[in-house]
Protein: Carboxypeptidase regulatory-like domain-containing protein
Amino acid sequence: MIRMIDAVLIFIFSFVYSAKTDSIIQQSNKQSQGIEGVVFWRSGNQMPSPDESATGMKGKPIVREIVVFKLTKTNETKQCKTFFSAIKTAEVGRTRSDSAGYFLLKLPPGNYSIFVREEKGLFANRFDGHNNICPVEVKAGEIAKIELIVDYAASY
Structure:
């Protein structure tokens, strides 16, 4: 009986996951260029342990507002740890991730900085060698892909 229930649950999960994947592919095909990605929440102790599995390494998908600015350097903002405010570059777009953490935003070609809105401010934890905050390049006719991991509540 338990195996039957497991089989039914696996079938249902596979169907839902497949439908979600098809939806994402259809959404991607409608966009000609921009940024798409997934937002994950990671918290707690992230140190490896021999008695715990490595599942869930990316974290849990979350619903959040994604805010995109022209490429922004750290000295063009007010910063408190991994939270930013008073951004001096132009905001170019915003969107919201869905319950699977997925988002898609149409943008013209260019270089951008991506932030995730949190209660304490705009969050970003990725930088390049030129002090640009969470940089992403959108090329003509292409979709730039990114994973955003909101991990200010995690310990490593």
